[in-house]
Amino acid sequence: MRAELTSLLDLNVYTDRGKYVGKVNDAVLDANEKKITGLAVSNLNPDLFDVQSKGIIIPYRWVISVGDVVVIKQVASYFKEKVVEKVEEPPR
Fold this sequence. Notes:
Elements: E1 12-15, E2 20-30, E3 35-42, E4 55-59, E5 63-66, E6 70-72
Parallel strand pairs: 1-6
Antiparallel strand pairs: 1-2, 2-3, 3-4, 5-6
């Protein structure tokens, strides 16, 4: 499939489980291979990422589909996991 690179800009990015990731800000290109190697994503969902920067680079190999939105694989080890605190009951 061929499309203009500018068609990716400002698309919302979601995981394959429907979680909002962020918005495509730019693309990373490999000029030698003539292909996209990553997507620069900003406006990150703070529930998924614990980063201090304005954005991240998502490897393009994670992209499943591109249309009205970009859908990526949810690779659990790369996303912040919610920590559930175990509350101990006081002794009786």
